[in-house]
Automatic annotation (TrEMBL):
It comes from Trichoplusia ni (Cabbage looper). The gene is LOC113493287. The keyword Lipid metabolism does not apply. It catalyses: L-seryl-[EGF-like domain protein] + UDP-alpha-D-xylose = 3-O-(beta-D-xylosyl)-L-seryl-[EGF-like domain protein] + UDP + H(+); L-seryl-[EGF-like domain protein] + UDP-alpha-D-glucose = 3-O-(beta-D-glucosyl)-L-seryl-[EGF-like domain protein] + UDP + H(+). This is KDEL motif-containing protein 1-like. Belongs to the KDELC family. Residues 221-463 form the Glycosyl transferase CAP10 domain.
Length: 493
């Protein structure tokens, strides 16, 4: 009897050790003192366990507990969210609502701490609202886990050297200030305070450029810079004209605009676990069906913002076994609503992944849904386009997406290829998700902006000054005690 008990205990010890070796926990959320985000996140990856018979029980047996104390209470306010990607991996997000001390992150599997859990941090661990900037920009970039440079940034900034922004801003206003059709803001960052002067009739989108500048300036002392941010979708500075420095959310092969992450992707990063429900983290858990349970058809919904979208409806109607595509609104081609309607109601973006294939077709410019399609775990059929977002040049056809001609003439053949090569199509989907996790998550969006503004600051030779007519953009009021070492100049500088 004793021998049986001993063998059972030995088996349990060996099993627990095996589980530790086969569970991988990683991500920026495990560095909460250095990496401040609206919602911190990390991954829990069950590797070899994936194939075990109790795989459906992973979600049930994985428990996350995060707690700490505040300055005035035994408990600080933390919201924890576990996202099941239904492939043996999980994303854990957590949001702090106040400064926490003695923060503990417990990852339990079958009621036992796994790997190096608990992860403990003395603190203070700040919520994103804290205005506690690190004074050393390069140190912050490194501790935040940012890349040193990006190929797209290098390409975009190549035309500019020794810039006199006083002169350039005057030229930009003179050439592009057309109130009915263009809107942009001239921003100044001085002593880590944000100021702007906006031009145009429709300037409401300045909230997005305000928010990223404010978010960065809470984390790190930004260099003094001047920049002009385009608030419209279309890039402005066409090749053949003087390369005036305008920052835009969309670039094109025919323009000089300096590309930033789109306002949509940026908002999803800054509002993570807030009012935004669709982001590159949540979309990874939204699919309810495993790959082999999804319909082998290509899905698309959208408005009539480009002629190729009408052509897609013709193609879908001729091949209902391959496509589920409908228009949701008519604006640009209202005269064709009788032919291409009736318009259909929107469906949840997560329902796109009831299908194996998702179509990405330009709207007025690049379709800003691509980051979420890549992250969602389906196979993307991407239309060839002269427009691009900040990350497009890093994508490889047939590795991250299936390329489709601009006129959609090969779209039917591409869907047929995917159906006939299911393993390859699934691999493309997996590569796309991996790409999104390596380049398009909130940490990456924040880093890209930071590196872009840092590199831009090196090119401006003119003195940065705040004009009399500029509006100050203040930080939202939030009580926070910052560590003194963030406020003083480091002794080794």
């Amino acid at each position: 009897m004793l021998r049986k008990s001993f063998l059972y205990m030995f088996f349990i010890i060996e099993l627990n050790q095996a589980l530790k070796n086969e569970i991988n926990i990683f991500g920026p959320g495990l560095k909460p003192e250095e990496i401040v985000m609206p919602a911190r996140y990390f991954y829990v990856n069950f590797t070899n366990i994936n194939s075990l018979s109790y795989k459906p029980e992973l979600n049930k047996n994985l428990v996350i507990d995060i707690y700490g104390r505040s300055k005035t209470s035994e408990h600080c306010r933390v919201w924890v969210n576990k996202l099941d990607r239904k492939d043996g991996t999980f994303i854990v997000r957590y949001k702090l609502y106040e400064t926490c001390f003695d923060l503990s992150i417990h990852v339990y599997y079958k009621r036992k701490d796994v790997v190096q859990s608990p992860y403990k941090f003395k603190g203070p661990v700040y919520p994103d609202q804290c205005h506690c900037p690190d004074i050393d920009f390069e140190h912050w970039l490194k501790s935040y886990g940012c890349s040193n440079t990006y190929e797209q940034i290098h390409k975009d900034l190549k035309p500019y050297q020794d810039i006199d922004m006083t002169e350039k801003v005057k030229k930009i206003v003179q050439q592009y200030h057309q109130p009915e059709s263009t809107s942009f803001c001239h921003y100044v960052v001085k002593e880590n305070e944000i100021y702007r002067n906006c031009y145009g009739k429709h300037i409401g989108f300045n909230m997005f450029s305000d928010n990223i500048l404010l978010a960065l300036s809470r984390k790190v002392k930004l260099p003094d810079i001047e920049l002009v941010i385009n608030l419209g979708d279309w890039p402005l500075v066409h090749k053949g004209s003087e390369p005036l420095p305008v920052f835009s959310w969309c670039g094109s092969d025919e323009t000089f605009d300096i590309t930033m992450p789109t306002y949509d992707l940026t908002e999803s990063a800054l509002e993570n676990m807030g009012r935004v429900t669709l982001d590159t983290l949540s979309v990874q858990s939204g699919a309810e069906l495993a790959w082999d349970k999804r319909e082998p058809r290509a899905v698309w919904r959208g408005r009539d913002s480009r002629a190729e979208r009408l052509k897609l409806i013709d193609i879908a109607r001729a091949n209902p076994d391959l496509f589920n595509a409908s228009l949701t609104n008519f604006f640009f081609f209202r005269d064709k609503e009788a032919q291409y309607g009736p318009k259909q109601p929107h469906i949840s973006f997560f329902k796109f992944f009831d299908y194996k294939y998702q179509i990405n077709i330009d709207g007025t410019v690049a379709a800003y849904r691509l980051p979420y399609l890549l992250a969602g775990g389906g196979t993307v059929l991407k239309q060839d386009s002269p427009y691009y977002e900040h990350f497009y040049k890093q994508l490889t056809p047939w590795e991250h997406f299936i390329p489709v001609k601009r006129d959609l003439s090969d779209l039917v053949d591409r869907v047929k290829w995917a159906r006939e090569n299911d393993d390859k199509a699934q691999l493309i989907a997996m590569n796309a998700k991996n790409f999104a996790n390596e380049h398009l998550l909130p940490q990456h969006v924040i880093c890209y902006h930071a590196v872009l503004f840092w590199e831009w600051s090196k090119l401006v030779k003119s003195k940065v000054h705040v004009e009399d007519n500029m509006t100050h953009v203040p930080q939202a009021a939030f009580e926070c005690d910052c560590r003194s070492e963030n406020r003083k100049i480091r002794e080794d500088l």
